[in-house]
Design a protein that fits this description.
Helix content is 87%, strand content 0%. With 159 residues, the chain is an all-alpha fold.
């Protein structure tokens, strides 16, 4: 038989010896379970994959939020630049732009009426979806159109 270790007192009686044997069995069972878990490569790989997926989803959420914040900042900056460009335009140019806008609006209304009369139903549905998106992003579209008109008028004036 082996000598008892320093951290385990020797048994003085059969009952105490049984308790020590039971404790050693429990510890041995726990050690075997721990070793079996470490040896189960498939389960460990699944755990690592699940953890990686979780981290990727969290990172994707963070990046999505950052992109949304940046998009809002850029949208606001674009609108500000469009207003600055409009403020710097001379009055005759602004008047011509307003007149052209009115004419474009009237022509678009006329084209819309012709479209409603002649376009097939599936095409009209898709066009309505596109128009809805344009309405939802009206500020950005108007700002971009204002900048485009200002740039066009500036180049036209120089040329």
């Amino acid at each position: 038989m082996t000598q008892p270790s320093d951290n385990q007192p020797s048994a003085t009686g059969p009952e105490e010896f049984r308790k020590q044997v039971e404790q050693v069995r429990t510890e041995l069972g726990q050690t075997v379970e721990a070793l079996a878990a470490k040896a189960d490569v498939k389960a460990r790989a699944k755990e690592e994959v699940a953890e990686a997926k979780e981290q990727a989803a969290a990172k994707a959420g963070d990046l999505k939020e950052q992109a949304a914040v940046k998009a809002r900042e850029l949208k606001a900056k674009g609108a500000d630049l469009a207003h600055q460009a409009q403020d710097k335009l001379p009055d005759p140019v602004r008047d011509k732009a307003a007149q052209a806008s009115g004419q474009a609006h009237a022509a678009a209304a006329q084209a819309g009426r012709v479209w409603q009369e002649k376009a097939p139903e599936p095409v009209r549905r898709k066009a309505a979806q596109g128009a809805g998106l344009a309405r939802d992003n009206r500020t950005a579209l108007l700002a971009a159109a204002g900048v485009a008109v200002a740039v066009w008028l500036t180049y036209r004036r120089k040329g």
